[in-house]
Amino acid sequence: MNTQIDLQIDLQWLKACQIEDAIENGGVCLKLNNEQVALFYFARRNEWYATQNECPHKRQMILSRGMLGSLGETPKVACPFHKKTFALDTGECLSGDECAIKTYPVKVENGTVYIGMTA
Question: How far apart are CA 92 and CA 85, in angstroms?
Answer without folding.
Answer: 9
